[in-house]
Amino acid sequence: MTLPTRLLWSLLIAACLVGGVTWAILLLRPPNQLTLAAGPEDGAYHRIAVQYRAILARDDIALRILETAGSAENARLLADGTADVAILQGGIDVAGETVEAIGTIFYEPLVLLYAANALISPNPTHWAGLRINSGVEGSGTRAAFDAFEQAVGLRPDANEHSALGYSDSIAALLDGQLDLAVFVAPIDAPYLRAAFESGAIGVLQLDFIEAISRRMDNASLVQIPPGTVSLDPPIPSGPRQMLALEARLAVRHDMHPALMNRLTMAALELHGGRDILQDEGDFPSVSGTVLPVNNSARQLIVNGPSTWHDWLPYWMAAQLNRVVILLLPLFFIVLPLLRALPGLYAYAQNYRVWQNYPVMRTIEDELESGSDPVTLDEMAERLTELDDHLAHLRLPAAYRQTAFQARVHIDLLQRRIITERRRLAAEAEETASVAAGAESTATS
User: Fold this and answer.
1) Between these two residues, 320 and 218, which has the higher pLDDT value?
2) Which end of the chain, C or N, has fewer beta carbons within 10 A?
C-alpha cells in the first residue's frame, strides 16, 4: 500500500470516527423544552413550578407552565400527553399506565380555616348545615375533602358546598359568607399566611385526628409547632396536629432520560432541605408515590448523583450513567470471555490437525493386527493423502509445529508399512523356496 493510499484510508477512518461521535452526541441530546401542569396562578403548585423553571433555565431548558384547576386536572393532562410533567396531590389517580413518579416532594397539610366568631365542632361527624368551601372542580382540594367526608362518614349533602378559589374563599370567610374553608397546601402558602395574620380566622384542630388519618388512604399526620407562620405574634399560638398528603412529581414514562435526570436533580435541590415539616433528606422520597417510580430517578434519589455530574453537561451525565448501568453486567460476562479467547483460538487451530489423528490411529491398529499387501497399499495411499492435506493446511506460524508432529507420525507409519511389506515379501519368498525344495525332492 502506497503512502497516498494509506493517508487516504487514515483520513477516511478519522472522518468516520468524527461522524460517529457527532451522531452519538446529537442522538443523546434531549429536547430543550417541557410542559408542566401546575395549578392556579395564586396556588403553591404554581409558585413551585416557577422555581423549577428557574433551575431548568440554567441548562437552557424552557419550562412552559400550564395554569390548571389543580391536581385532578393535572392528572388528566399528564395522562393524555398535554403535559410532560405535573405536580400531583397524594391520592389523585392517573388513568392508564403511561405515567411514572420521580418521587414524593413535600407534605401538604389539610388546613381547615374557620371564622373566629363561628362555632365549629372539632368533631367532623357533628357538622351539619355548614357553608363549606371545599375547592373548585378538578382541584386536589376537592378530591381530598371528598375522601375526608367518606372517612368520617359525612354525607355530601349534609353541608352546603361552594367552589371558590383560594383567595376568594379567604375573603368569603372574613365577610361571614363561609363557615369553613378547606385547603390542601404548604402551611406557609402566601394566601394562608394572609389568613393567619388577619386575626379573624382560626385553624380548626380536629378531634380523633389519628383515627381519621388511618381511615384516609395516602394520609399521614404532621406536627405544626407554634410560631410556624410567625413568631411575633406567634402563629399558630400552640402546637397543631394536622392531616397531610404527600405531593408527587409525576412524568410521562417516555420522557427523555436526560430530562428525567435533570428534573430529579432539580427536585433534590428544591425539596431536599429542612423546613418546618421535614428534616433534611426526607424528600424527595421514592416511597408513598402509589405510581411506579422511574428507575433513573430512584437511583439518583437513593444513591445521589454520580461524580461526572459535576463536570459533564447534564444530558451527557444522564446517558453515561445509564450506559454504565447497562454495560456493567456485560463487563463481568465479556471480560472472562476475552481472557478465554486466546485459549479457544489455540484449541481451534490445533483441532484442525488433531481431527486427522483418528485416521492414523485406525491405520496403526490395522498394522498391529497384520495386513496383506493390498491392504498395505491402501493404507499407504491414505497416509499419502493425509500428509498432502497437512502439508497444504494454512496455519499461523505458532501452530505449525502441531502439523509437523502429525506428519512425523505419518512418516513413521509409512516406514512401518514398508517394513511390513518387506516382512511379507520375505515370508512369501521363504514359503516359495520351501515349496520348490519339496517339489524337487518329490521329483527325484
Assistant:
1) 218
2) C
